Protein backbone atom coordinates (compact mmCIF):
# COMPACT_ATOMS: atom_id res chain seq x y z
CA UNK A 1 0.00 0.00 0.00
CA UNK A 2 2.95 2.34 0.53
CA UNK A 3 3.41 2.89 -3.18
CA UNK A 4 -0.28 3.78 -3.49
CA UNK A 5 -0.26 6.30 -0.65
CA UNK A 6 2.60 8.70 -1.29
CA UNK A 7 3.24 11.65 0.96
CA UNK A 8 1.01 14.50 -0.25
CA UNK A 9 2.56 17.48 -1.96
CA UNK A 10 1.22 19.59 0.87
CA UNK A 11 -1.18 19.85 3.78
CA UNK A 12 -2.89 23.12 4.70
CA UNK A 13 -4.26 23.84 8.19
CA UNK A 14 -7.57 25.60 7.53
CA UNK A 15 -9.09 28.34 9.68
CA UNK A 16 -11.39 25.88 11.48
CA UNK A 17 -8.47 23.60 12.37
CA UNK A 18 -9.04 20.98 9.69
CA UNK A 19 -6.22 19.71 7.47
CA UNK A 20 -6.56 19.82 3.69
CA UNK A 21 -4.10 17.60 1.81
CA UNK A 22 -3.34 17.78 -1.88
CA UNK A 23 -1.04 16.51 -4.61
CA UNK A 24 0.35 18.44 -7.56
CA UNK A 25 1.28 17.27 -11.04
CA UNK A 26 2.69 19.09 -14.04
CA UNK A 27 4.61 22.36 -14.42
CA UNK A 28 4.18 24.91 -11.64
CA UNK A 29 4.01 27.73 -14.19
CA UNK A 30 1.11 26.19 -16.14
CA UNK A 31 -2.56 27.13 -15.78
CA UNK A 32 -3.65 26.02 -12.30
CA UNK A 33 -6.47 23.48 -12.25
CA UNK A 34 -8.08 21.98 -9.15
CA UNK A 35 -8.99 18.40 -10.14
CA UNK A 36 -11.74 16.88 -7.98
CA UNK A 37 -11.98 13.12 -7.48
CA UNK A 38 -15.01 10.87 -7.78
CA UNK A 39 -17.05 8.95 -5.19
CA UNK A 40 -15.60 7.14 -3.36
CA UNK A 41 -12.08 8.36 -3.90
CA UNK A 42 -9.22 10.63 -2.97
CA UNK A 43 -6.28 12.44 -4.52
CA UNK A 44 -4.57 9.08 -5.27
CA UNK A 45 -6.59 8.07 -8.32
CA UNK A 46 -4.54 6.99 -11.29
CA UNK A 47 -0.83 7.02 -12.10
CA UNK A 48 -1.57 8.67 -15.44
CA UNK A 49 -2.47 12.01 -13.82
CA UNK A 50 1.15 13.16 -13.86
CA UNK A 51 1.77 12.45 -17.53
CA UNK A 52 -1.59 13.99 -18.49
CA UNK A 53 -0.70 17.21 -16.67
CA UNK A 54 2.82 17.30 -18.09
CA UNK A 55 1.68 16.73 -21.68
CA UNK A 56 -0.92 19.50 -21.42
CA UNK A 57 1.37 21.91 -19.61
CA UNK A 58 -1.15 22.22 -16.78
CA UNK A 59 -0.52 22.58 -13.05
CA UNK A 60 -2.93 19.93 -11.78
CA UNK A 61 -3.78 20.34 -8.09
CA UNK A 62 -5.64 17.33 -6.67
CA UNK A 63 -7.12 17.81 -3.17
CA UNK A 64 -8.62 15.22 -0.84
CA UNK A 65 -12.18 16.18 0.05
CA UNK A 66 -12.95 16.33 3.79
CA UNK A 67 -12.73 12.89 5.35
CA UNK A 68 -11.26 11.36 2.20
CA UNK A 69 -7.61 10.32 2.07
CA UNK A 70 -5.61 12.54 4.41
CA UNK A 71 -7.98 15.52 4.70
CA UNK A 72 -9.79 15.94 8.02
CA UNK A 73 -13.42 14.95 8.39
CA UNK A 74 -15.84 17.89 8.37
CA UNK A 75 -19.11 17.24 10.24
CA UNK A 76 -22.34 18.44 8.63
CA UNK A 77 -20.61 19.64 5.47
CA UNK A 78 -22.48 20.29 2.25
CA UNK A 79 -21.37 20.28 -1.38
CA UNK A 80 -21.33 24.08 -1.25
CA UNK A 81 -18.72 24.07 1.53
CA UNK A 82 -15.86 22.82 -0.65
CA UNK A 83 -15.38 26.07 -2.63
CA UNK A 84 -14.19 27.88 0.51
CA UNK A 85 -11.57 25.15 1.08
CA UNK A 86 -10.37 25.55 -2.49
CA UNK A 87 -10.29 29.32 -2.10
CA UNK A 88 -8.10 28.92 1.00
CA UNK A 89 -5.81 26.59 -0.93
CA UNK A 90 -5.65 29.09 -3.78
CA UNK A 91 -4.60 31.70 -1.20
CA UNK A 92 -1.91 29.35 0.14
CA UNK A 93 -0.57 28.70 -3.36
CA UNK A 94 -0.85 32.39 -4.29
CA UNK A 95 -2.92 31.65 -7.36
CA UNK A 96 -4.10 34.69 -9.27
CA UNK A 97 -6.24 32.60 -11.64
CA UNK A 98 -7.42 29.01 -11.54
CA UNK A 99 -9.79 26.52 -13.09
CA UNK A 100 -11.69 23.68 -11.49
CA UNK A 101 -12.37 20.26 -13.02
CA UNK A 102 -14.44 17.40 -11.65
CA UNK A 103 -14.64 13.80 -12.79
CA UNK A 104 -17.71 11.63 -12.17
CA UNK A 105 -18.80 12.27 -8.55
CA UNK A 106 -16.46 15.26 -8.43
CA UNK A 107 -18.61 17.05 -11.00
CA UNK A 108 -21.11 18.58 -8.53
CA UNK A 109 -18.21 20.00 -6.50
CA UNK A 110 -16.68 21.57 -9.59
CA UNK A 111 -20.02 23.17 -10.43
CA UNK A 112 -20.47 24.36 -6.83
CA UNK A 113 -17.08 26.04 -7.09
CA UNK A 114 -18.09 27.62 -10.39
CA UNK A 115 -21.25 28.95 -8.73
CA UNK A 116 -19.43 30.31 -5.67
CA UNK A 117 -18.14 33.37 -7.48
CA UNK A 118 -14.44 33.51 -6.58
CA UNK A 119 -13.19 36.22 -8.98
CA UNK A 120 -9.99 34.23 -9.54
CA UNK A 121 -11.90 31.32 -11.06
CA UNK A 122 -11.66 31.36 -14.85
CA UNK A 123 -13.91 28.43 -15.66
CA UNK A 124 -14.85 24.82 -15.00
CA UNK A 125 -14.70 21.42 -16.67
CA UNK A 126 -16.85 18.38 -15.88
CA UNK A 127 -16.04 14.95 -17.33
CA UNK A 128 -18.68 12.23 -17.09
CA UNK A 129 -20.13 14.13 -14.15
CA UNK A 130 -23.09 12.87 -12.18
CA UNK A 131 -26.19 15.04 -12.06
CA UNK A 132 -28.55 15.76 -9.15
CA UNK A 133 -29.76 12.56 -7.45
CA UNK A 134 -31.88 13.91 -4.61
CA UNK A 135 -35.19 12.59 -5.97
CA UNK A 136 -36.37 8.98 -6.39
CA UNK A 137 -36.98 9.58 -10.09
CA UNK A 138 -33.40 10.74 -10.60
CA UNK A 139 -32.02 7.62 -8.90
CA UNK A 140 -34.43 5.43 -10.87
CA UNK A 141 -32.88 6.80 -14.06
CA UNK A 142 -29.49 5.28 -13.24
CA UNK A 143 -28.28 2.05 -14.77
CA UNK A 144 -28.33 -1.18 -12.76
CA UNK A 145 -24.63 -0.95 -11.90
CA UNK A 146 -25.16 2.09 -9.65
CA UNK A 147 -28.87 2.32 -8.88
CA UNK A 148 -28.87 0.02 -5.80
CA UNK A 149 -25.94 1.93 -4.29
CA UNK A 150 -27.67 5.28 -4.49
CA UNK A 151 -31.05 3.88 -3.46
CA UNK A 152 -29.39 2.67 -0.28
CA UNK A 153 -27.49 5.93 0.19
CA UNK A 154 -30.76 7.85 0.04
CA UNK A 155 -31.88 6.13 3.25
CA UNK A 156 -29.12 7.74 5.32
CA UNK A 157 -25.42 7.98 6.09
CA UNK A 158 -25.42 4.75 8.11
CA UNK A 159 -26.58 2.82 5.07
CA UNK A 160 -23.54 4.14 3.21
CA UNK A 161 -21.06 2.63 5.65
CA UNK A 162 -21.38 -1.05 4.64
CA UNK A 163 -21.24 -0.01 0.99
CA UNK A 164 -17.97 1.82 1.54
CA UNK A 165 -16.61 -0.99 3.72
CA UNK A 166 -17.23 -3.48 0.93
CA UNK A 167 -15.29 -1.27 -1.48
CA UNK A 168 -12.33 -0.44 0.75
CA UNK A 169 -11.83 -3.49 2.96
CA UNK A 170 -8.85 -5.82 2.90
CA UNK A 171 -5.12 -5.39 2.70
CA UNK A 172 -5.00 -6.02 -1.04
CA UNK A 173 -7.43 -5.19 -3.85
CA UNK A 174 -10.05 -7.92 -4.23
CA UNK A 175 -9.02 -9.42 -7.56
CA UNK A 176 -12.16 -11.54 -7.81
CA UNK A 177 -14.29 -8.43 -7.28
CA UNK A 178 -12.27 -6.53 -9.88
CA UNK A 179 -12.73 -9.40 -12.33
CA UNK A 180 -16.49 -9.35 -11.73
CA UNK A 181 -16.60 -5.61 -12.28
CA UNK A 182 -14.63 -6.03 -15.49
CA UNK A 183 -17.10 -8.62 -16.80
CA UNK A 184 -20.00 -6.29 -16.06
CA UNK A 185 -18.42 -3.34 -17.86
CA UNK A 186 -19.54 -2.23 -21.31
CA UNK A 187 -17.17 -3.24 -24.10
CA UNK A 188 -15.75 0.28 -24.32
CA UNK A 189 -14.54 0.25 -20.71
CA UNK A 190 -13.27 -3.32 -20.96
CA UNK A 191 -11.15 -2.29 -23.94
CA UNK A 192 -9.59 0.51 -21.88
CA UNK A 193 -8.71 -1.86 -19.04
CA UNK A 194 -7.32 -4.50 -21.38
CA UNK A 195 -5.10 -1.86 -22.99
CA UNK A 196 -3.84 -0.67 -19.58
CA UNK A 197 -4.42 -3.30 -16.87
CA UNK A 198 -2.97 -0.95 -14.23
CA UNK A 199 -6.02 1.27 -14.50
CA UNK A 200 -8.44 -1.30 -13.08
CA UNK A 201 -6.15 -2.00 -10.14
CA UNK A 202 -5.49 1.69 -9.45
CA UNK A 203 -8.99 3.05 -9.93
CA UNK A 204 -10.44 0.06 -8.10
CA UNK A 205 -8.03 0.27 -5.16
CA UNK A 206 -9.84 2.55 -2.72
CA UNK A 207 -7.72 1.78 0.34
CA UNK A 208 -5.83 5.10 0.10
CA UNK A 209 -9.16 6.93 0.34
CA UNK A 210 -9.96 5.10 3.59
CA UNK A 211 -6.56 5.39 5.26
CA UNK A 212 -8.09 7.41 8.13
CA UNK A 213 -11.38 5.53 8.26
CA UNK A 214 -14.58 5.48 6.25
CA UNK A 215 -16.66 8.19 7.95
CA UNK A 216 -15.78 10.81 5.35
CA UNK A 217 -16.29 8.43 2.43
CA UNK A 218 -19.69 7.35 3.71
CA UNK A 219 -20.69 10.97 4.17
CA UNK A 220 -19.38 11.82 0.68
CA UNK A 221 -21.60 9.10 -0.79
CA UNK A 222 -24.62 10.34 1.17
CA UNK A 223 -24.04 13.88 -0.06
CA UNK A 224 -24.35 12.62 -3.64
CA UNK A 225 -28.08 12.08 -3.07
CA UNK A 226 -28.70 15.40 -1.31
CA UNK A 227 -29.77 18.67 -2.96
CA UNK A 228 -26.75 20.51 -4.29
CA UNK A 229 -27.67 23.85 -2.73
CA UNK A 230 -27.00 26.11 -5.72
CA UNK A 231 -28.61 27.01 -9.03
CA UNK A 232 -26.90 25.92 -12.25
CA UNK A 233 -28.54 28.80 -14.12
CA UNK A 234 -26.63 31.30 -11.98
CA UNK A 235 -23.15 30.04 -12.90
CA UNK A 236 -21.39 32.91 -14.64
CA UNK A 237 -18.08 31.35 -15.68
CA UNK A 238 -17.71 29.12 -18.75
CA UNK A 239 -18.24 25.40 -18.15
CA UNK A 240 -17.14 22.67 -20.55
CA UNK A 241 -18.99 19.37 -20.16
CA UNK A 242 -17.65 16.10 -21.56
CA UNK A 243 -19.74 12.92 -21.64
CA UNK A 244 -19.44 9.39 -23.01
CA UNK A 245 -22.32 8.05 -25.07
CA UNK A 246 -21.96 4.51 -23.67
CA UNK A 247 -21.32 5.45 -20.04
CA UNK A 248 -23.10 2.96 -17.77
CA UNK A 249 -22.02 4.64 -14.53
CA UNK A 250 -23.39 8.10 -15.33
CA UNK A 251 -26.06 8.29 -18.05
CA UNK A 252 -25.22 10.80 -20.76
CA UNK A 253 -28.52 12.58 -20.07
CA UNK A 254 -26.95 13.97 -16.88
CA UNK A 255 -24.50 16.02 -18.94
CA UNK A 256 -27.17 17.02 -21.46
CA UNK A 257 -29.46 18.31 -18.72
CA UNK A 258 -26.71 20.18 -16.86
CA UNK A 259 -25.29 21.79 -19.99
CA UNK A 260 -28.77 23.01 -20.92
CA UNK A 261 -29.00 24.90 -17.62
CA UNK A 262 -25.54 26.47 -17.38
CA UNK A 263 -25.67 29.71 -19.42
CA UNK A 264 -22.13 29.70 -20.84
CA UNK A 265 -21.47 26.04 -21.48
CA UNK A 266 -20.31 23.57 -24.11
CA UNK A 267 -21.03 19.86 -24.35
CA UNK A 268 -18.69 17.43 -26.07
CA UNK A 269 -19.96 13.88 -26.52
CA UNK A 270 -17.36 11.13 -26.93
CA UNK A 271 -18.75 8.44 -29.28
CA UNK A 272 -18.27 4.74 -28.58
CA UNK A 273 -16.87 5.58 -25.14
CA UNK A 274 -17.52 4.42 -21.57
CA UNK A 275 -17.01 5.89 -18.11
CA UNK A 276 -13.23 5.40 -18.12
CA UNK A 277 -12.99 7.85 -21.02
CA UNK A 278 -12.83 10.54 -18.35
CA UNK A 279 -9.33 9.27 -17.51
CA UNK A 280 -8.18 8.11 -20.94
CA UNK A 281 -9.05 11.41 -22.59
CA UNK A 282 -7.83 13.58 -19.73
CA UNK A 283 -4.71 14.72 -21.66
CA UNK A 284 -6.83 16.20 -24.45
CA UNK A 285 -9.31 17.69 -21.96
CA UNK A 286 -6.48 19.42 -20.12
CA UNK A 287 -4.86 20.52 -23.37
CA UNK A 288 -8.14 22.13 -24.47
CA UNK A 289 -8.48 23.78 -21.08
CA UNK A 290 -4.95 25.14 -21.31
CA UNK A 291 -5.64 26.61 -24.75
CA UNK A 292 -8.86 28.20 -23.56
CA UNK A 293 -7.26 29.52 -20.39
CA UNK A 294 -4.53 31.18 -22.44
CA UNK A 295 -7.06 32.70 -24.84
CA UNK A 296 -9.26 33.99 -22.04
CA UNK A 297 -6.41 36.00 -20.61
CA UNK A 298 -6.92 38.33 -23.55
CA UNK A 299 -10.53 37.84 -24.62
CA UNK A 300 -12.99 36.21 -22.17
CA UNK A 301 -15.47 34.00 -23.99
CA UNK A 302 -19.02 35.27 -24.49
CA UNK A 303 -20.24 32.19 -26.33
CA UNK A 304 -23.52 30.61 -25.32
CA UNK A 305 -24.42 26.97 -25.05
CA UNK A 306 -23.15 24.65 -27.76
CA UNK A 307 -22.77 20.95 -28.28
CA UNK A 308 -20.85 18.68 -30.61
CA UNK A 309 -19.80 15.10 -31.06
CA UNK A 310 -16.21 14.18 -31.80
TrEMBL record:
PANTHER family cross-referenced by the UniProt entry: AB HYDROLASE-1 DOMAIN-CONTAINING PROTEIN, HYDROLASE, ALPHA/BETA FOLD FAMILY PROTEIN, EXPRESSED-RELATED
SUPFAM superfamilies the UniProt entry points to: alpha/beta-Hydrolases
Pfam families reported for this sequence: Abhydrolase_1 (PF00561)
InterPro entries tied to this protein: AB_hydrolase_1, AB_hydrolase_fold
GO molecular function: catalytic activity
Lineage: Bacteria, Bacillati, Actinomycetota, Actinomycetes, Propionibacteriales
Gene3D superfamilies the record matches: alpha/beta hydrolase
Provenance organism: Microlunatus soli
Official protein name in the record: Pimeloyl-ACP methyl ester carboxylesterase
Amino acid sequence: MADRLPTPTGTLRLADGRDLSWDEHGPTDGPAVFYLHGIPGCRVMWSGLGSAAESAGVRLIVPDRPGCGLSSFQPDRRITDLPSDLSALADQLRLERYWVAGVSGGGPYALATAAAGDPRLVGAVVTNGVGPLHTPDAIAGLYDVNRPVFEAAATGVEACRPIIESMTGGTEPDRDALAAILRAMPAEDRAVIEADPRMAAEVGDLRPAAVNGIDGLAYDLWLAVQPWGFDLTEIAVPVDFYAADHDRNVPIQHAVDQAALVPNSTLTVWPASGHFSGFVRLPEVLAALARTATAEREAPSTAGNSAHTE
